[in-house]
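Inputs:
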Amino acid sequence: MLNIGGLHQGVVIDHIPAGGAMRIYEYLNLEDLDASVAIIKNASSKKMGKKDIIKIEGPITIDLDTLGVLYPNITINIIEEDEIVEKRGLRLPERVTNIIRCKNPRCITSIEQELPHIFRLADPTTGAYRCIYCDQRFRMK
Amino acid sequence: MRHLITPLDLTVEETNDLLVLAEDISKDRFRYSSVAAGKKLATCFYEPSTRTRLSFEAAMLNLGGSVLGFSSADSSSAAKGESVADTIRVISCYADICAMRHPKEGAPLVAAMHSGIPVINAGDGGHNHPTQTLTDLLTIKALKGHLDGLTIGLCGDLKFGRTVHSLIHAMVRYPNVRFVLISPWELRIPGYIRKDVLDANHIEYKEVDVLEEVMPELDILYMTRVQRERFFNEEDYIRLKDSFILDAKKMRYAREDMLVLHPLPRVNEIATEVDADPRAAYFRQAQYGVYVRMALIIRLLGLEVPTC
């Protein structure tokens, strides 16, 4: 198995479904981050078969909580002094902007490209979101 | 500043207040004839809808205000590619309140987010049409005297009919309301309305596909059009269409005080012979539509109501 060194300080985003790491990379704009970032794709996982992992080195100020909209089952480990000091549970934000795109061809966002795609949490138990403009339902499979 | 984008933007109390005001207007509309003097309504209609636009314009003119606007996207700056947000920013400089119809769902919400004046959704695609819902509520309230304890039959296209969905949303907020859903199997009410609205609010309802047998139970019969293009094949359409046409024969099964409502335009789903029946309320419904829009304009503009 590929070995990536441990972190002294930083964040490990674990249990990302295989193939999902780049989506998180883009969502968090990690290309703009002046820090070491390791993306591990298709790592073996007892639970998932295959998974992706992202390791980010250094102090992080990014809001990671909203990642739950993309992948509700990922885990976030905060590392300090080589130790996991926090395992963060994810929450579903009340409102997300430009994370989900509305695919309803009847929605105003289909003809006005500049409009932000905004979804509100409609049902916290199922994680269902609805477009604020047309009420189109979205739920991450 | 308030807008009206969905029927549920108004609380039950606000809705009731509006209906009381609209009923008062219906009794003596001339008392309100200068309430909006000096105010302007912009009707921004990106798709044609003569009935709704004229109803809004009649409402504003009845209040002593004036109207301006456009009645199709071709005759507006949308044809040049202007966004809804930019259009409403400009309209806000010209008028005091705006009624907007748009073929795309959510366009009036976008307008409200950028507007300097109250925006009323006059219909956004197949999504919301809150002033139609208010019209339906006022018609029922004015002619029945109350909104609670009613059995409401909804007949026709219950799958795609936005007026039906909005009416269900609005009526479940009143106690002891019961629904009878009458439609061909292909056009039954969508599952999410059944689950999220009816079941979630513990509302009693039943689904049937024969109109005559449930007629005696109904306080209100709300008719909608069964459209040919909703069916997969012509045979089904021909087989089913007559089951959902209201005629004098079917009216014999109805109670003496049942009301027939229809959002109009009607095509053939209510035979013209029913028009003379005193229970046919659909043309009075159009009149109540003007009154409720007058009340809405008064409330959204915060206008002073004349005392008796």
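The two ends of chain B are 28 Å apart (CA to CA). Flag for discussion at group meeting.
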